């Protein structure tokens, strides 16, 4: 079993490097992009399980890229987490309308980052009917839904076979 693939799309180098380091140390297969176009290309090449999408990217912003990805049949099932320093309710509503599956506020708390990514990676594994990486298997029942996550627990997510 392979670890979940995570893509961090973030233009601030220090934030990007910190997120990549933390997630890599946790055992994820992590890659990073500094802008939307690079992120879009990496998504097509690497097919990540979870994308941390900065909403304030130069050029095409993260909200626009999220809309593009969620309307494309090849990428719409990828879990996208808004990665933003602006935590206003209007912005959360805009992120949800664009197709984001959850939120991670910056500056981020390391435990909150790991809990949120872990939860969404487990939900995705269950939804796709893939075996969960053994490092996280014992945690499935114990993982709590993070704030900003979709409104279901991993146990309630239908597998791909149930559709």
Overview of the structural elements:
Residues 147-163 have low confidence and may be disordered. Helix 3 (62-71) packs parallel to helix 4 (89-98). The two termini are 24 Å apart. It is built from six helices and five strands; from the N terminus they run βαβαβαβαβαα. The radius of gyration is 15 Å and the shape is globular. The relative contact order is 0.15. It has a five-stranded parallel β-sheet with strand order 2-1-3-4-5, sandwiched between helices. 41% of the residues lie in helices and 15% in strands. It has 163 residues and is an alpha/beta fold.
Q: Key features?
A:
single chain, 163 residues, alpha/beta, five-stranded parallel beta sheet
Brief digest:
With 163 residues, the chain is an alpha/beta fold. 41% of the residues lie in helices and 15% in strands.
Q: Estimate the helix proportion, in percent.
A: 40-55%
Q: Rg to the nearest angstrom?
A: 15 Å
Unreliable stretches covering 5 or more consecutive residues = 147-163
Topology pattern, helix = H, strand = E = EHEHEHEHEHH
The largest β sheet comes out as: 5 strands, parallel
User: What general form does the structure show?
Assistant: globular
State the distance separating the first and last CA atoms: 24 Å
| Backbone structural class | alpha/beta
Please state the oligomeric state of the protein chains shown.
Answer: single chain
Strand order of the largest sheet: 2-1-3-4-5
Task: Quote the beta fraction.
Answer: 15-25%
Number of strands: 5
Q: Mean pLDDT score, rounded?
A: 81
Q: Count every helix, treating DSSP H or I runs of 4 or more residues as helices.
A: 6
